[in-house]
Amino acid sequence: MEEITPEEALARLFRLGIIVSLISVLHMLTLLLPWYVIDSSPFLRSYFLGYLSTESLIFSVAGGVMAGLGLLVSTFVSSLNKVRLIMAVMTFVGAALMLISPFYLLMVKIPALAVQGKLEWGFFPSVITPIAMLAIGFLIAKPGFSGEASYGGYVAPAVTPPVRAYTPRPAQFSPSVSEGVVRGAAASLVPADEVEPGTICSICYYEIEDADTAVKCSSCSMVFHRDCAESWVNLNGVCPNPNCQRPVTL
Q1: What is the CA radius of gyration of the chain?
Q2: Residues 3, 148: contact at Cβ < 8 Å?
Q3: Domain ranges in the chain with CATH number 1.20.140
Q4: I need a surface site. Which of 39, 41, 180, 227 has the fewest CB within 10 A?
Q5: Which CATH number does 6-151 carry?
């Protein structure tokens, strides 16, 4: 059995309610159709339309209004069980009133007129429409149709993922960095005596080709281009080596 949210279950019920309202409108339109034909003579026939019977007209309109009210009232109710109950009761009552309408004409009105005739084709849709409404009413009243059957009327609630609180972690520094900052030990840029072939400046990422253009940090001995290192220190005031970062004086 599928698991659905209460919102989806309500949506299914409201869709059924809309279908019920449309069927009630169709039934009231059958009042404009001939329900019975009266044989006045072998050459003359009179068609008895549904709305010509005041009682049938009242029953049909009252049934249609009840079905529409069921859908309208349900829009103001948030409980799934209450919505189902209201819509089911109003649908059953409306269908019963509409079903009485054609049979009242057939069993009460026509015999009272003491005329001879037969049923006309418009009588049958006036009976079929309330029967269809009764069938939909049973679907509305049945919990399983809206997805709650396997839970005994319980609808699986929407699952909201837990919100995890974020606690920022303090920045972690290497021992060399923390010691340099805490102690205030300053380093300096000194000329590099020699540069191994293939040494890369970690600031510009170009190869250091000449030792005369290179300097190194007196603390970590990292080698840089002189121009790169001086520009870095002027902006940041610390060694460019992320594992050192001691204050540097030019």
Answers
A1: 44
A2: no
A3: 6-151
A4: 41
A5: 1.20.140
Q: Which of 48-62, 177-191, 203-217 has the highest mean pLDDT?
A: 48-62
Locate tokens 């290179």: which residue?
A: 214
In order of 13, 99, 128, 130, 231, the CA distances from 17 in angstroms are: 6, 18, 18, 14, 76
Task: Return the bridge partners of 94, or none.
Answer: none
In order of 30, 82, 126, 157, the CA distances from 122 in angstroms are: 6, 36, 7, 47
Q: What is the architecture, at CATH level 2, of domain 183-249?
A: 2-Layer Sandwich (3.30)
What one-character-per-residue DSSP string does 174-194 give?
-HHHHHHHHHT--EEEEE-S-
**Residue in this structure with the two tokens 């007196």, named with its chain if needed:** 218
Secondary structure of residue 198 in the 3-state scheme: coil
The helix (H) or strand (E) run that includes residue 49 is strand 44-49
Which residue has tokens 């659905």? 4
